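lol ok so funny story. i was supposed to be doing the assay writeup but got distracted and ended up predicting the structure for this chain instead. priorities right. anyway since i did it might as well share w the group, maybe its usefull for someone
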Amino acid sequence: MSTIKPLFPRRTVPDLSVPLAGGGNWTLGEKTPENFTMVVVYRGLHCPICKGYLNDLQRRLPEFEKHGVEVLVLSSDNKERAEKTRDEWGLDALTLGYGLTLEKGREWGLYISSGIGTTSIGIEEPALFVEPGLFLVRPDKTLYFASVQTMPFARPAFGDIVTALGFVLSKNYPARGEITDFPAQAAE
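and the output, tada:
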């Protein structure tokens, strides 16, 4: 049984390589964005909240590109479900990966859920799948920002992220949350 280990800002993220809906492969180690690679993990074809979330991302893709951010969207779905997601949700502008293994999801600090049947949109949940996560990775492959969730609700808003990117880039704002070892605090 694997355990979740947090990723820490300013440290190298695990390698990531996935096949793409429509063909080809995507490998983080080969990416050279101007400022960041944004990896957006969604639950899969069965998730109606993911559909709206990813459509919002697709609408805002030019804003991310303007800030020098390359975007990958991926799930633990198989090829058939990923291509159905791309086609039925109209996600033709997004780079959509699939086949994220549960083990790799754990390396990235993601939570895993078990399927509980058919969702409100009539699609069966897989037996096991990853819950959402969003990661901003610097060109040197170190983590800048991460948000992982146990539920599909209340994810980071892409509009807020775009606004934050403007500030971060103009002020050269450092990654935060990087401290891993610290002295114990005395009780007051």
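The domain at 31-170 is CATH 3.40.30.10 (Glutaredoxin). The chain has one domain: 31-170.
back to the writeup now i swear
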